[in-house]
UniProtKB/TrEMBL annotation:
GO terms for molecular function: copper ion binding; cytochrome bo3 ubiquinol oxidase activity; cytochrome-c oxidase activity; oxidoreductase activity, acting on diphenols and related substances as donors, oxygen as acceptor. Residues 127-239 form the Cytochrome oxidase subunit II copper A binding domain. This is Ubiquinol oxidase polypeptide II. The chain crosses the membrane at residues 37-61, 82-103. It comes from Bosea psychrotolerans.
Length: 397
């Protein structure tokens, strides 16, 4: 019977082969401090949990029905000493947990610059953090090194014992940037920037991935993080500079299209303004940046005079180039009232070719549009679509 039990347990032991204990044995100081916080908190809680579980078994055995030697006190209802033990011990544990959590929350704030590179080793005053811009794409990771002017896809590297400063954003849906050996996970969101500071203390190859489900290609959003010596990191940068191609805006718009299980790619040159354009969602030519729109709004907006700038904007996270859920572009051919639109049409610098709706003659119809907004290409669209509204169709509003 015992041999059968051992054989039955073997499949369960095989499942443990897939376990990865990198969280409990990280290679970065920030991740190590987070590990210590989890371990200490668990031990403090076990100081209460283990005695309670042990006493539960003890009382159940001690005062079982068949034990005639157990003390029987049906009128007992209070003990001051026992009450002090019952309430003071958990209270002390909660105080310790609260203090530990409060200090850890501030010391391990991902936005906080590092004060040390390892236990007992403060950051040298001459140390310059390695700047890395991170962009979560569908479904791959883009890393830009502004200091060196290179970029990589699904590959990240950093020198050992050098602080790393990450600026993180997303091109569309929300993801989570996570290298367990380096530091905790930080969300990447379109139109927003999050920060993370970390350091790697041991050379090696570690795994990074997205810890937030983001669609069909989510399982392939993995990348290699290389902890390198200074000499090896310089060599890695040299290899990146020797790669073919440059990452400009046109190349990025192609890279941004959803794809799965992408191989590692390197770019020898990067547009220095690309990351800010990605962050402000204005990579496409002629698109107003989000920070520019915020500045205009802060001054009261441009009103109807700014309609030419605001109408073409599309900041919804799904309407991206080639995205699975992306809608076709939508257009507004009239603004406010017909009279106002006609007045703006009269002030337009160039006349427009009339586009007749269904059932009307070309001699009596006149197309209208917003001030400054060019007429979309309707050559491949049905004329009766002018009477309808919705994604991918003109709308009269």
């Amino acid at each position: 019977m015992s041999r059968f039990r051992i054989i039955a347990v073997l499949p369960l032991l095989a499942l443990l082969g897939g376990c990865n204990f990198v969280v409990l044995a990280p290679a970065g100081d920030v991740a190590a401090q987070q590990r210590d916080l989890v371990v200490i908190s668990t031990i403090l809680m076990l100081l209460i949990i283990i005695p309670v579980m042990a006493l539960t078994v003890f009382f159940a055995w001690r005062y079982r029905h068949s034990n005639k030697e157990a003390r029987y006190e049906p009128d007992w209802d209070h003990s001051t000493g026992l009450e002090l033990v019952i309430w003071s011990a958990p209270l002390l544990i909660i105080i310790c947990l609260g203090a530990l959590t409060w200090m850890g929350t501030h010391l391990l704030d991902p936005y906080r610059q590092l004060g040390r590179i390892a236990a007992g080793r403060p950051v040298p005053q001459t140390a310059k953090p390695l700047e890395v811009n991170v962009v979560a794409l569908d479904w791959k990771w883009l890393f830009i090194y502004p200091e060196y002017g290179v970029a990589t896809v699904n590959e990240l590297a950093a020198p050992v014992d050098r602080p790393i400063s990450f600026r993180i954003t997303s091109s569309s849906v929300m993801n989570s940037f996570y290298v367990p050996a380096l530091a905790g996970q930080i969300y990447a969101m379109a139109g927003m920037q999050t920060r993370l500071h970390g350091v790697i203390n041991r050379p090696g190859r570690y795994q990074g991935f997205s810890a937030n489900y983001s669609g069909a290609g989510f399982s392939g959003m993995r990348f290699a993080f290389h902890g390198l010596t200074d000499a090896d990191f310089d060599g890695w940068i040299a290899q990146a500079k020797a790669a073919d191609g440059a990452l400009d805006r046109a190349t990025y718009l192609q890279l941004e299209r959803p794809s799965e299980n992408d191989p590692v790619r390197r770019y020898a040159n990067v547009d220095p303004k690309l990351f800010n354009a990605i962050l402000n969602m204005c990579v496409e030519p002629g698109k107003m940046c989000m920070n520019e729109m915020a500045a205009v709004d802060a001054k009261g907006g441009l009103g109807l005079a700014g309609i030419a700038n605001t109408l073409p904007l599309s900041y919804e996270k799904y309407a991206r180039r080639g995205a699975v859920f992306g809608a076709e572009p939508s257009y507004v051919l009239s603004v406010c009232t017909i009279e106002e639109a006609a007045a703006m049409q009269a002030r337009a610098p160039a006349p427009m070719t009339p586009v007749p709706p269904k059932g009307t003659s070309t001699s009596t119809s006149t197309a209208i549009r917003g001030a400054g907004l060019p007429l979309p290409d309707l050559s491949l669209r049905r004329l009766d679509s002018l009477l309808l509204s919705g994604p991918g169709r003109p709308s009269n509003s």
